[in-house]
Design a protein that fits this description.
Elements (H helix, E strand, L loop, with lengths): L3 E2 L5 E11 L3 E16 L1 H9 L11 E18 L4 E19 L8 E18 L4 E8 L5 E7 L2
Antiparallel strand pairs: 1-3, 2-3, 3-4, 4-5, 5-6, 6-7, 7-8
Length: 154
């Protein structure tokens, strides 16, 4: 999409320790860390969609956004069988955000940095290829609305 640049996709890592296990379900507690960042230029976006220089470079605005999430995680897992499980997680912690703008007035030099309480939820599925290695796909909001990755059991 014109106007957006990102050096990395949203990244997260989490771990859990099982505190209760039943016949089909289990409960885990753990930690979650996530990072996302991008640059956005509304003037480049307008120029990209207009197909010409609708906004001159002298009026170019660039917004830089970074977010880090540090949270505790509690999850309920339901095991359909030994290879497929569904889970739902609640996250609670802090989100650290930085927001900077570069460009003409009135946006020139706006810099915000701060931490705020963070609460969210995720739901997803894990598919195991072996007894210990698999993949997950989840929806909700950690640092992205849809997440996928590698899953490992120890």
């Amino acid at each position: 999409m014109p106007g957006f640049t990102s050096s990395l996709p949203p990244l997260s890592i989490s771990g859990e320790y099982c505190i209760w296990s039943g016949e089909k379900g289990s409960l885990g507690v753990g930690a979650y860390f996530g990072y996302t960042g991008f640059e956005y230029s509304p003037t480049d976006m307008l120029n990209g969609f207009a197909g010409e220089e609708a906004v001159p470079d002298s009026l170019k605005t660039v917004i830089t956004y970074n977010q880090m999430v540090y949270a505790a995680r509690i999850s309920y897992h339901y095991n359909f069988n030994s290879r497929i499980e569904w889970y739902i997680s609640l996250l609670g912690g802090y989100s650290s955000i930085s927001y900077k703008t570069k460009g003409p007035e009135p946006l020139l030099g706006i810099n915000l940095l701060g931490s705020m309480p963070y609460v969210s939820s995720l739901t997803g599925f894990k598919f195991y290829f072996t007894d210990n290695i698999g993949m997950f796909i989840e929806a909700g909001y950690g640092v992205g609305f849809l997440n996928a990755g590698i899953s490992a059991k120890f």
